[in-house]
DNA sequence: CATAACGGTTACCCAAGGGTAACCGGCGCC
DNA sequence: GGCGCCGGTTACCCTTGGGTAACCGTTATG
């Protein structure tokens, strides 16, 4: 017998629990009943807080995505050099991954964003991340290539994280961030208009 | 009235058409009816060639994945240096992406949703790719980190490609390969046991 | 102590879609 | 020229699951 919760808290709890459920089963793999059960309530309760399954899912993506973005933004705010910013950024990202595997899976490894809207929502997040990265690529190179490379670096971090999360390994985010930042920074310095 | 095809050819045609359908709509978004219609036949015909939807999907992944792997393997076979191999490899990869957007989307787009078996199948492909890359990271670094970075480079290529494919842009795979290979190679040279 | 508000439940509807049983028609082959 | 093989179709079954209508019990408040 779960306690009755006031609306606000119940909504938060549903969001909390839904991240895990969707991350583990994917969008289509998880039914609203699954989410409801995990939250300790029944289906109609979900619909009191969210208009539809898609609505719930989009709320999750927005929530989790913003959390990631702000974590990185905060970490890099005090950086004095591009290199330091790169390192701090990657470290913050890997810390975010290490802290909440489910959140990472929801955004990057989720087995079902077939929904056009969800795909768009995630694209918006990665695009925002890329926008933050792009200015660090200050070599002489045309703007389009710059943004493309920025998306590549997002993918780099994603690829690294995916392997670690899938293996369920413990890892040191700060050490890993240093390693990857080193790779990224040196790589970026090496490319130029002649590439 | 579509012509009647011998079993072998029909099977090939279904695979061809199914790549496009699944790439565009995702696993759950595409129904067997959609695939059948696109192939110009009806549903039961699909089930004469494949046991289930999942069976068809797995066959596709295997098919497309192997095509990608061998394309890269062939391109890098004659390389004389690590740097040349890196460049040739990335170029072959981007050529593969440019040639067949649908194949790329099937394997890498988040929009192509997967169940557990499909996730595993795809993991196998990326892992194989990473295995090919890992030896190029011949710096003094422990084996686990080496493989993790290899997965990162797979992600790097994936991130770059995703943006280009999503934008429907034309791009020069050879030029792009040179650019990304430069980044990767220089990045890898820069990291060491002290990172 | 009636009653309204609110959190929650039971029981259902209905469309979508994976999968199948039964049937059909033309072509090759003794 | 009947016969069987083979590629194909029509029409259906049945589960899953998103979404909802109607109802219930507790608490608070006058």
TrEMBL record, chains A, B:
One GO molecular-function entry: transcription cis-regulatory region binding
Leader peptide range in chain numbering: none
Gene3D superfamilies assigned to the protein according to its UniProt record, in alphabetical order: Tetracycline Repressor, domain 2
Keywords for the protein's UniProt record, in alphabetical order: DNA-binding, Transcription, Transcription regulation
UniProt xrefs under SUPFAM superfamilies: Homeodomain-like (SSF46689), Tetracyclin repressor-like, C-terminal domain (SSF48498)
PROSITE patterns attached to this UniProt entry: HTH_TETR_1, HTH_TETR_2
Domain HTH tetR-type residues, every copy: 8-68
Matches recorded under InterPro entries: DesT_TetR_C (IPR054129), DNA-bd_HTH_TetR-type_CS (IPR023772), Homeodomain-like_sf (IPR009057), HTH-type_TetR-like_transc_reg (IPR050109), HTH_TetR (IPR001647), Tet_transcr_reg_TetR-rel_C_sf (IPR036271)
Name of protein: Unannotated protein
Source species of the chain: freshwater metagenome
């Amino acid at each position: 017998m779960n306690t009755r919760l006031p609306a606000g808290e119940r909504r938060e709890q549903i969001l909390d629990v839904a991240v895990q459920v969707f991350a583990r089963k994917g969008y289509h793999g998880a039914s609203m009943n699954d989410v409801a059960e995990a939250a300790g309530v029944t289906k109609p309760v979900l619909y009191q807080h969210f208009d539809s399954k898609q609505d719930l899912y989009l709320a999750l993506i927005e929530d989790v995505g913003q959390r990631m973005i702000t974590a990185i933004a905060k970490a890099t705010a005090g950086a004095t050099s591009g290199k330091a910013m790169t390192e701090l950024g990657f470290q913050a990202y890997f810390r975010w991954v290490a802290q909440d595997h489910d959140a990472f899976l929801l955004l990057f490894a989720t087995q079902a964003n077939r929904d056009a809207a969800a795909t768009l929502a995630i694209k918006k997040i990665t695009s925002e991340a890329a926008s933050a990265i792009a200015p660090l690529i200050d070599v002489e190179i045309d703007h389009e290539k710059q943004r493309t490379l920025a998306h590549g670096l997002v993918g780099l971090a994603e690829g690294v994280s995916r392997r670690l999360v899938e293996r369920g390994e413990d890892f040191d985010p700060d050490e890993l961030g240093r390693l990857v930042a080193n790779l990224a920074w040196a790589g970026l310095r090496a490319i130029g208009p002649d590439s």
